[in-house]
Automatic annotation (TrEMBL):
The keyword Repeat applies. It comes from the Eukaryota. The keyword Repeat applies. This is Kinesin light chain. Keywords: Repeat, TPR repeat. Gene3D superfamilies: Tetratricopeptide repeat domain (1.25.40.10). TPR repeats lie at residues 48-81, 132-165.
Length: 197
């Protein structure tokens, strides 16, 4: 997940503003009372989506501690309201793993990635794009630690699945191809890297 343009920032700031406006309408109530009230209503999952989006904004800004606080709130709510195997819950688990990976906390990143992978495989299957994104991110965790053989094994699994599910020219597939090139580049195997670039 990376921000590509300033246009993204403006769009997300407008989006977060509307979410915060929703929360502000209820600011006179005690927050825990408000959340308890929302848990009993059909709007609670929508509120959780807003909380998740706030975490995402902090993540994209590189404010990982803030992102983690909001992701933990979203995760607790999703698990309670929708269950541990719901896609929204698993997406949150996946993003928590990404926060840990970006902080260099690789053991934690791997623990959360494995949880996301198990859930995605169970609910969506091994060849679903969300599952394959998690496989790709497990490779990134190994790659970040210089564990190139393990990284390559996971990248190859992600690549095979993405080519089958999405096609060879899909941006997600090409992202995995690029990361394979980076693994070779990081090992000084420049001829192999050029073959993948």
């Amino acid at each position: 997940m990376s921000r590509e343009t300033d246009e993204w920032e403006a769009q997300e700031e407008r989006r977060i503003g509307s979410h915060l406006g929703y929360l502000d309408r209820f600011s006179k109530q005690n927050l825990s009372e408000f959340l308890q009230q929302q848990q009993r209503s059909l709007e609670y999952p929508a509120l959780l989506d807003y909380i998740y989006d706030i975490a995402l904004v902090f993540y994209y800004q590189g404010k990982y501690d803030e992102a983690m606080r909001w992701y933990e709130r979203a995760l607790a709510g999703y698990e309670k309201a929708l269950g541990k195997d719901h896609q929204s819950t698993l997406d949150t688990v996946h993003n928590i793993a990404m926060v840990f990976q970006n902080q260099g906390k690789y053991d934690e990143a791997m623990r959360w990635s494995e949880r996301a992978l198990a859930g995605h495989e169970k609910v969506l299957g091994k060849d679903h794009p969300s599952t394959l994104d998690t496989v790709h991110n497990i490779a990134v965790v190994f790659d970040s630690q210089g564990k190139y053989d393990e990284a390559m094994r996971w990248y190859e699994r992600a690549l095979a699945g993405k080519e089958k599910a999405l096609g060879k020219d899909h941006p997600s597939t090409l992202d995995t191809v690029h990361n394979i090139a980076l693994v070779f580049d990081g090992q000084g195997k420049y001829d192999e890297a050029m073959r993948w670039y």
